[in-house]
């Protein structure tokens, strides 16, 4: 009887560990990092700077008459004069005070009404229909009534700002309250939270993003309402400077006042966005690519 032996395994085809070539390491650079070779602040300012350069060129070449619109160099000189004699800082202080008072009054009223309407069905039945009806009325059209009711002093100016800001906060806070996930309410109840515990720990944090959005809209509307409000026989403020400049055809001063309005509005919006990042750290959001 013959015994057959299996041939030994062929190990010549196997690669020894020391003979294996290590893979080359390649540094992976994110696409967003490759795109941002140019600083972002430079890209964001290139458009406005180019517009200013074209504006100055058109004025210098005579394509844009200076009596129609002053060139940027003249506007900058006018701004320096207004800042130097203290006229512009004093006007900004008066306008900021009006916006602050109107925003506090209107924001408080809108938020309180939204809480009453959003947290209670009875409050919704009593409040929401009236607010929805009033917000469809153009608040600028109420200026004649405000003058009749409150005169031509500070009251109608502040009331106009308060009215313009209240509706934005009401709508966004109300939507934020009613947009809270029902499963979170059920989970809070299962953990033993009572009615006020649910409101404090679940509903109000869930409505906070809506409040911040409403605050940003309210600030934008507040500056718009200030422009209309300061046209009501104002004797101080940025609108007062604009009315005086209009009488003397000073387009440079008018543009300076418009730039100040825009600057104050952007600064207020930036502060709200910083506050939003601070208060809403628990909610990661998409920031673009």
Automatic annotation (TrEMBL):
<feature type="compositionally biased region" description="Pro residues">
    <location>
        <begin position="1"/>
        <end position="10"/>
    </location>
</feature>
<feature type="domain" description="ABC transmembrane type-1">
    <location>
        <begin position="88"/>
        <end position="272"/>
    </location>
</feature>
<feature type="transmembrane region" description="Helical">
    <location>
        <begin position="223"/>
        <end position="241"/>
    </location>
</feature>
<keyword id="KW-1003">Cell membrane</keyword>
<dbReference type="InterPro" id="IPR000515">
    <property type="entry name" value="MetI-like"/>
</dbReference>
<feature type="transmembrane region" description="Helical">
    <location>
        <begin position="158"/>
        <end position="177"/>
    </location>
</feature>
<feature type="transmembrane region" description="Helical">
    <location>
        <begin position="134"/>
        <end position="152"/>
    </location>
</feature>
<feature type="transmembrane region" description="Helical">
    <location>
        <begin position="253"/>
        <end position="275"/>
    </location>
</feature>
<dbReference type="InterPro" id="IPR035906">
    <property type="entry name" value="MetI-like_sf"/>
</dbReference>
<feature type="transmembrane region" description="Helical">
    <location>
        <begin position="99"/>
        <end position="122"/>
    </location>
</feature>
<dbReference type="GO" id="GO:0005886">
    <property type="term" value="C:plasma membrane"/>
</dbReference>
<protein>
    <submittedName>
        <fullName>Sulfonate ABC transporter permease</fullName>
    </submittedName>
</protein>
<keyword id="KW-0813">Transport</keyword>
<comment type="similarity">
    <text>Belongs to the binding-protein-dependent transport system permease family.</text>
</comment>
<dbReference type="GO" id="GO:0042918">
    <property type="term" value="P:alkanesulfonate transmembrane transport"/>
</dbReference>
<keyword id="KW-0472">Membrane</keyword>
<keyword id="KW-0812">Transmembrane</keyword>
<dbReference type="Pfam" id="PF00528">
    <property type="entry name" value="BPD_transp_1"/>
</dbReference>
<keyword id="KW-1133">Transmembrane helix</keyword>
<feature type="region of interest" description="Disordered">
    <location>
        <begin position="1"/>
        <end position="25"/>
    </location>
</feature>
């Amino acid at each position: 009887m013959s015994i057959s032996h299996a041939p030994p395994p062929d190990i010549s085809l196997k690669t020894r560990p020391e003979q294996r070539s290590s893979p080359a390491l390649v540094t992976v650079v994110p696409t967003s990092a490759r795109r941002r070779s140019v600083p972002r602040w430079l890209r964001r300012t290139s458009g406005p700077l180019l517009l200013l350069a074209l504006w100055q060129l058109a004025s210098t070449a005579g394509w844009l008459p200076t009596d129609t619109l002053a060139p940027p160099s003249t506007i900058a000189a006018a701004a320096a004069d207004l800042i130097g004699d203290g006229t512009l800082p004093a006007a900004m202080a008066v306008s900021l005070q009006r916006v602050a008072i109107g925003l506090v009054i209107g924001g408080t009223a809108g938020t309180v009404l939204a809480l009453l309407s959003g947290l209670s069905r009875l409050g919704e039945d009593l409040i929401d229909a009236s607010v929805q009806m009033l917000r469809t009325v153009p608040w600028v059209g109420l200026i004649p009534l405000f003058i009749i009711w409150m005169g031509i002093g500070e009251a109608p100016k502040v009331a106009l700002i308060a009215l313009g800001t209240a509706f934005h906060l009401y709508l966004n806070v109300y939507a934020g309250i009613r947009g809270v996930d029902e499963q979170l309410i059920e989970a809070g109840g299962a953990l033993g939270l009572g009615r006020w515990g649910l409101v404090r720990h679940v509903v109000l944090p869930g409505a906070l993003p809506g409040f911040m959005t409403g605050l940003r809209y309210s600030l934008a509307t507040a500056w718009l309402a200030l422009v209309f409000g300061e046209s009501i026989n104002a004797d101080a403020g940025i609108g007062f400077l604009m009315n005086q400049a209009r009488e003397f055809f000073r387009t440079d001063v008018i543009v300076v006042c418009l730039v100040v309005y825009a600057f104050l509005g952007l600064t207020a919006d930036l502060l709200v966005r910083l506050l939003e990042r601070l208060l809403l750290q628990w909610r990661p959001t998409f920031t673009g690519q």
